[in-house]
């Protein structure tokens, strides 16, 4: 399962009123831990987690990165109504991610 990769401009251009619960996974292409975290998210999503997940390359997200003070990757940001409610930097296990996204 592949997640939709979006740009910062695309996300910022969406209406916040239409957004409910979602998650954005920030990564960099050469980060091995990011690839492992993405694979764990794919397994959690395939198991039936209900939160939509999209991905963003943090190298091209200066507004969100600085505004949300994202300090490292991988970073899974849970959002409600377009606003961050949780930042998860440690991808501990598929089970943890599944419960987080349920």
From TrEMBL:
Residues 5-97 form the Thioredoxin domain. This is Thioredoxin family protein. It comes from Paenibacillus lignilyticus.
């Amino acid at each position: 399962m592949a997640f939709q990769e979006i740009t910062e401009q695309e996300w910022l251009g969406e209406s916040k009123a239409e957004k409910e619960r979602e998650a954005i996974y920030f990564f960099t292409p050469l980060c091995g831990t990011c690839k492992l975290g993405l694979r764990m998210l794919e397994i959690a999503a395939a198991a039936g987690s209900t939160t939509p997940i999209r991905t963003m390359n943090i190298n091209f997200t200066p507004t969100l990165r600085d505004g949300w003070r994202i300090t490292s990757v991988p970073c899974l940001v849970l959002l409600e109504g377009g606003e961050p409610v949780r930042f998860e930097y440690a991808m501990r296990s598929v089970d943890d991610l599944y419960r987080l996204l349920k």
